[in-house]
Specification:
single chain; 329 residues; alpha+beta; Jelly Rolls; 8-stranded antiparallel beta sheet; 5-stranded mixed beta sheet; 28% helix; 23% strand; JmjC_dom
């Protein structure tokens, strides 16, 4: 078992890596190895009365939370329930492989299971976490599938109970994964339209190229998977009772805006312009955004650089106000 997370290597390589057994000494893992009932009882010690969001899928979706066939809505329902009641639902259905799918996703550990991280936590020692603390979440359910999507944060996914399979794709495979609508989405992020169980290669022929570039990570209890931001990933929970914790983080201060907003604004302002004009704007973005951060303003005196210099909290507020003013004119 690794003694520590080799963050410097992971971040430099920008590739998914399984850290086998890194969380194997967590009490949650030990309870899960004793059985689903023991794992559920342990979770109830921390948050039995906490109200969580429960997604419920009918048997016919086979655990794949997605859209209806005509994309007019989602193929599952959501509601609020006490965590203890949710755990009982999952336990009661363990013997019914063809029953409903239950899924509690991205639930804040500190808020909904207070005290859980006292004995179940990774030691995160890296300069990134001094900039912006990670968000720790828990994921609970039976046999479910989160269709391939991307996150805007780096991720450490800890398989605690049951087994999980991650199918991962580098960001450049986005076009070969046939992303669905921007809104609504099953879980807040765009998902692939391809059903990995029976891919329709006549309708989605480039998916074969995506699979050629895919990496598969099968996680046992106690294993931890690192993967970088913007890597697409499909997550299959493979056991009748599954628990995962994860840590999301961005190596930038909280006042730095999300590029997802930039993408939406670029669709509004750039996408439908003439090709020659878009090429000119590509050069502008290369100069101001994608090139070295200091390059656009290093020929100016520091006092004259404004947002061309380092973006601190006050500069971010001014940029945001300027942008809002332009959008609202």
């Amino acid at each position: 078992m690794p003694d520590a997370i080799p963050f410097a290597e992971l971040i430099a390589d920008q590739q998914p890596v399984v850290l086998e057994g890194l969380a194997s000494e967590w009490p949650m893992v030990g309870r899960g190895l004793q059985g689903a009932a023991q794992a559920a009882a342990y979770l109830k010690e921390f948050g039995s009365e906490s109200f969580v969001t429960l997604f419920t899928g009918p048997p016919e979706i086979g655990g794949r939370f997605h859209y209806t066939d005509d994309l007019s809505g989602l193929n599952f329902s959501s509601g609020r329930a006490k965590l203890g009641e949710v755990l009982d639902l999952v336990l009661d259905g363990i013997g019914d492989a063809a029953g409903p799918a239950y899924y509690v996703g991205s639930t804040d550990l500190d808020q909904f299971l207070p005290g859980f991280r006292t004995d179940n936590d990774l030691t995160l020692d890296h300069p990134d976490f001094g900039v912006r603390p990670p968000l720790a979440s828990v994921w609970i359910g039976n046999r479910t599938t989160a269709a391939a999507h991307y996150d805007i944060s780096n991720n450490l996914a800890c398989c605690l109970v049951g087994k999980r399979r991650f199918t991962l794709f580098p960001p450049e495979q986005v076009g070969n994964l046939y992303p669905g609508p921007l809104d609504p989405t099953p879980g807040g992020q765009v998902v692939t339209m391809v059903d990995f169980r029976k891919p329709d290669l006549e309708r989605y022929p480039r998916f074969a190229e995506a699979m050629a570039a895919a990496q598969i990570a099968d996680l046992e209890p106690g294993d931890v998977l690192y993967y970088p931001a913007l890597w697409w990933h499909q997550v299959n929970a493979l056991a009748p009772f599954n628990v995962m914790a994860n840590y999301w983080w961005n190596p930038v201060p909280a006042h730095i805006d999300t590029p997802q907003n930039t993408l939406l604004h670029a669709m509004l302002s750039l996408r439908d312009r003439p090709g020659t004009e878009k090429q000119a704007w590509r050069a502008m973005f290369e100069h101001y955004v994608f090139g070295p951060a200091e390059a656009a303003g290093d020929h100016l005196p520091p006092a004259a650089r404004g947002p061309l210099g380092p973006v601190d909290e006050m500069t971010a507020r001014r940029l945001r106000a300027q942008l809002l003013n332009r959008l609202n004119r």
